[in-house]
From TrEMBL:
Gene Ontology MF annotations: serine-type endopeptidase activity
TM spans (from-to): none
Keywords: Disulfide bond, Hydrolase, Protease, Secreted, Serine protease, Signal, Zymogen
Localisation per UniProt entry: Secreted
PROSITE patterns, alphabetized: TRYPSIN_DOM, TRYPSIN_HIS, TRYPSIN_SER
Recorded GO CC terms: extracellular region
UniProt cross-references to Gene3D superfamilies, sorted A to Z: Trypsin-like serine proteases
Name of the protein described by the UniProt record: Peptidase S1 domain-containing protein
Organism: Zophobas morio
Keyword field contains Oxidoreductase: no
Residues covered by the Peptidase S1 domain: 22-254
Pfam families: Trypsin (PF00089)
Length: 256
């Protein structure tokens, strides 16, 4: 398994198959995904980028591998663009002052690849900044979901996309997913696949897999790993299932 063990290093000019990106996606409209969070994590080795999801006025849900090495976190909310602009009144930059890594996160197997960033104070919600719903039941196989992120848009182009992209992918059974990987696909993981050239890859780590029901968006997965055959292959992408951890998340963010 080629996993997203480290998020995309900013200004990185080379291609690394161990990270994630949106392939074959479409640019999101303003406010289409108001929970989308861009996370900049400062480590001793540089600044790294990951995605995440606002789950309360004070908390962002992301992958453990995105934040486990960091000591400073900056989160951008309310804007689909990674390009800073003083003229964008919807853009908010917030410092995360602490983090919660799942206590049983396993770097090698990627089990429990889930973490929470915490702001010092609650943020103000707007039409462009809204928490996503946590799931009330497990996502099933063969349903259409949406993956979002700022990752690379093709194998040949290094770096991040300037705009938030999304792509429709369908969940598949873990048995089917296992055919693409030599390492075990555990029950707390879920895989999803799109058409050829559609899926996640570099820079999309930590971003959500979203299920839309009755015009509501539900967080059902966290972008975690890909196969070692590259992002433009037909192999599925792997996510941490959200539902098994919904109670853990609610306990830490103070939401029933």
């Amino acid at each position: 398994m080629s996993c997203q063990k480290s998020p995309t290093l900013l200004q990185m000019s080379y291609h690394d198959e161990t990270k994630s990106r949106i392939i074959g996606g479409t640019e999101a409209r303003a406010g289409q995904f108001p929970s989308a969070a861009a996370i900049y994590s400062t480590t001793s080795g540089g600044t790294y980028f990951c995605g995440g999801s606002l789950v309360s006025r004070q908390h962002v849900l992301t992958a453990a591998h995105c934040v486990i090495s960091g000591f400073k976190y900056e989160v951008v909310l309310g804007s689909n663009s990674l390009q800073g602009s003083a003229s964008n009144p919807n853009r908010v930059i917030v410092a995360a002052t602490s983090r919660i890594i799942h206590p049983y996160y396993n770097y090698q197997t990627l089990q429990n690849d889930i973490a929470i960033l915490i702001f010092h104070l609650p943020i103000e919600l707007t039409d462009y900044i809204q928490p996503i719903n946590l799931p009330t039941e497990e996502v099933v196989d063969n349903v259409e979901t949406v993956a979002i992120g700022w990752g690379q848009t093709d194998d040949a182009t290094a770096g991040l996309a300037s705009q938030l992209n999304y792509v429709t992918v369908s969940t598949i059974s873990n048995t089917e997913c296992q055919l693409s990987f030599t390492d075990v696909i555990f029950d707390n993981m879920v895989c999803a696949a799109g058409n050829y050239n559609e899926g996640t890859c570099n820079g999309d780590s930590g971003g959500p897999l979203i299920l839309e029901v009755d015009n509501k968006q539900y967080h059902v997965g966290i972008s975690s790993f890909i196969s070692n055959r590259g992002c433009e292959s037909t192999d599925p992408s792997g996510y941490t299932r959200t539902f098994p951890y919904a109670g853990w998340v609610r306990n830490h963010i103070g939401v029933n």
